[in-house]
Write a structure and sequence with these properties.
By secondary structure, this protein is an all-beta fold. It contains no helices and six strands.
Length: about 100
């Protein structure tokens, strides 16, 4: 049973993207499995252990102009869920 309030778009083959640290110190290739206005489901094939995944950018275009600031929601094997942060969001991970 789907409990999300935002409608999701599911990509049959996935959509290639990159995860990048807020400070630019690391990046990983990932595949967007599904996405909505509120967040996304990602598949990450390279190791994530030791990376500060609390908050990062999801870069959706090759030129870097399309991106979303993300907050980690859950991890399940090579799949992670993220929620998108918006300017002015306040929460337990606020870094401002």
């Amino acid at each position: 049973m789907e409990r999300r309030s935002a409608k999701r778009v599911v990509f049959a083959r996935g959509y290639d993207a990159h995860m990048m640290a807020i400070d630019g110190t690391w990046q990983r290739a990932c595949t967007v499995v599904d996405i909505s206005d509120a967040g996304a489901g990602l598949r990450v094939d390279s190791p994530m252990s030791g990376l500060p995944l609390k908050e990062f950018f999801l870069v959706l275009s090759s030129n870097g102009f399309a991106f979303r600031r993300c907050q980690l929601a859950w991890v399940n094997g090579d799949r992670i869920g993220v929620s998108f942060r918006r300017p002015g969001d306040k929460g337990k991970y606020d870094v401002s």
